[in-house]
Amino acid sequence: MQLSVDPDSATPPYEQIRAGIAERARSGELPTGLRLPTVRALAEELGLAAGTVARAYKELEADGVVETHGRRGTLIAAAGDTAHRLAAEAAAEYAGRANRLGLSHEDALAAAVAALRVAYPAG
Question: In which element (H, E) is residue 28 found?
Answer without folding.
Answer: none
